[in-house]
Amino acid sequence: MCTLRKFALIVAGAVWATSVAAGQAPQDRAAEIVKTRCTQCHGMDLIAQQRLTQPGWDREVAKMIGWGAAIDSSQAGDVAAYLAARHGPGRPATGLPSDTANAASRLLDARCTVCHATDLIAAQRLDADGWRRELAKMVGWGAVLSADEQALLVEHLAHGSR
Amino acid sequence: MQDRRGEVITRRAFLDAALRGAAGTAVIAGGGLASLAAQGAAPAGRLIVHSARPQDLETPAHLLTSWITPNELFYVRSHFDTPVIREDAWALRVDGAVGTPLTLTIDDLRRMPSRTLPVTLECAGNGRGNYDPPVAGVQWGKGAVGTARWTGVPLADVLRRAGVQAPAKFLWLDGADTGPGRAPDFIRSLPLDKAVDRDTLLAYEMNGERLSPAHGFPLRAVVAGWEGAYSVKWLSHLTLSDHDHPGPFVSTAYRIPRSPVAPGTVVGAGETVPIRGLLVKSIIASPAAGTAVPGGRATTISGFAWSGEHDIDRVDVSVDNGRTWMPATLGRDRARYAWRQFELAWVPKEPGSHVLLSRATNAEGRTQPIEPTWNPGGYLWDAVDRVRVDVHPA
């Protein structure tokens, strides 16, 4: 009886764990894969500047899997879809003079991390207007950022490689 | 002494990275100073960072102001992480279809008669970021090009010492860089005729300085007039073969469709041909795009024109979006494989937004097209260059 209950609990636990994993939205899982697997070999900047359609990303992801990227081929479609949605043909090619990128990174490290970590920033997917509003909010909450510094950060966060 | 020289370079690279790149390091590499230095990455300075790892840096066109590009402004193209090489532990192997396989130290090479040649290098993907529809790869603007005085040994002299055997038709060039995971080794293949050309160099100096790690320390190929990927960095192994190298950087990459295709077409490798010489091309470096220009006063429109193995014959500039063209003055500095500077004095009369164009023509009579030929690799962007500026009222 006791053993049977234990068995039932284990089965229930396994079912629950499976449902949680399955419950993770494909784009969240894809985002996690991109963040953890792709960056083992190159930076996010290389990804962020591409402007490929879904078939284009399908080819790129397949090539990378061939080169040893730790992505299961069953996940390749989701990863390509995620990348096509974020880095599709409509997006501008990016690239900032490193002085600008460095200055922005310094600002992020010095001012923003007083209250929160940079992963919170990296997780955002805002355009320039979105970042302008967000920074204005943060200044309202007490962040120390001049107008020039805000403009630099908007440019970096919306268009630069993070 | 030799041993120390290698160490000094490594330490200098570390210090450069530490002093100049410190702020970006923690964010870009995520691994702190040591990892950046360990990778031998260059301080990016004023260059545009397309990729921090592996390192791909573009020169902002407005910083190209001299016939010879200063080393710290020269674009950097890397397929994989920059290898850290100790000079005393490095050697160049030459084997395959040769009478005498060779292993040469850097001092063996330095003791051979040297040549210095000004050569313009341009990445085959320069301008890829402009293609529509977009294609995969580093999204270069127009600054993956530069000119340096390269000093080294003619490759032909090294091949003569090894004694090239009859079956050899191609020279495979392999650098010390290695890709992660199962990524294929970056190996390029040069037809023998170009390999034994007196102007093809194994270079160890760039503008009078020892090669930096980012530019191929301690030895790189400089294949004058051909697209940049032939000029393999961190050279460690030359193999003479009777066939082209089968790897993807020869059989798939750096190739264009045999016949032009509609933009967006997927093209099989079998329908492509390798890119060799650079096309005729010009870029406007000044004024920079989007800048304000005073009306009623002279502004100098200047830039560079090059054409691989051919001489530049003329550069024409338009200040009215191509309705009329004027011949620009070509700079005095010239060398067979180096770009020419051009300039034209312009006194804008009409205020407003104006499009400036430059169009080079080479000695063969070939000129730049209005539209480039779209190709799946995004190579050889050669369209008439255009820069939009705002003319302010006088």
Secondary structure layout plus pairing:
The complex is a heterodimer of chains A (162) and B (394).
Chain A: H1 2-23, H2 26-36, H3 44-48, H4 54-66, H5 76-86, E1 96-97, H6 98-111, H7 118-122, H8 128-140, H9 147-159
Helix pairs in contact in A: 2-5, 4-5, 6-9, 8-9
Chain B: H1 2-20, H2 22-28, H3 32-38, E1 48-52, E2 55-58, E3 92-96, E4 102-104, H4 106-111, E5 115-122, E6 145-154, H5 155-162, E7 170-175, E8 187-191, H6 192-195, E9 200-206, E10 209-210, E11 220-223, E12 235-241, H7 248-251, E13 255-257, E14 272-274, E15 281-286, E16 292-294, E17 299-306, E18 312-318, E19 326-327, E20 329-330, E21 340-346, E22 352-362, E23 385-392
Parallel strand pairs in B: 3-12, 16-23
Antiparallel strand pairs in B: 1-2, 3-4, 5-6, 6-9, 7-8, 7-12, 9-10, 9-11, 13-14, 15-17, 17-21, 18-19, 18-22, 20-21, 22-23
Q: What is the C-alpha radius of gyration of chain A, as a whole number of Å?
A: 20 Å
Major sheet description of chain A: none
**Would you identify the regions of chain B where 5 or more consecutive residues have pLDDT less than 50?**
1-38
Strand fraction of chain A equals under 5%
Q: Tell me the distance between the termini of chain B.
A: 63 Å
Count of helical regions of chain B: 7
Strand content of chain B: 25-35%
The proportion of residues forming helix of chain A, as a percent range, comes to 55-70%
Please bin the fraction of helical residues of chain B. 10-25%
Write the H/E string of chain B, N to C. HHHEEEEHEEHEEHEEEEHEEEEEEEEEEE
Overall structural class of chain B, as computed from helix and strand content, comes to: alpha+beta
> How many extended strands of chain B?
23
Global geometry of chain A: elongated
Low-confidence stretches of chain A are 11-21
Structural class by sheet pairing and helices of chain A: mainly alpha
Explain what the structure shows.
The complex is a heterodimer of chains A (162) and B (394). Chain A is mostly helical and 162 residues long. Helix content of chain A is 66%, strand content 1%. Chain A has 9 helices and 1 strand. Chain A has helices at 2-23, 26-36, 44-48, 54-66, 76-86, 98-111, 118-122, 128-140, 147-159, and one strand at 96-97. Chain A is elongated, with a radius of gyration of 20 Å. Chain B is of the alpha+beta class and 394 residues long. Chain B is built from 7 helices and 23 strands. In chain B, the strands form 6 sheets. In chain B, strands 4-3-12-7-8 form a 5-stranded mixed sheet. In chain B, strands 5, 6, 9, 10 and 11 form a 5-stranded antiparallel sheet that branches. In chain B, strands 16-23-22-18-19 form a 5-stranded mixed sheet, with no helix packed on it. In chain B, a hairpin with a 5-residue loop joins strand 3 (92-96) and strand 4. In chain B, helix 1 crosses helix 3. Chain B is globular. Residues 1-38 of chain B have low confidence and may be disordered. Classes of the chains: A mainly alpha (162), B alpha+beta (394).
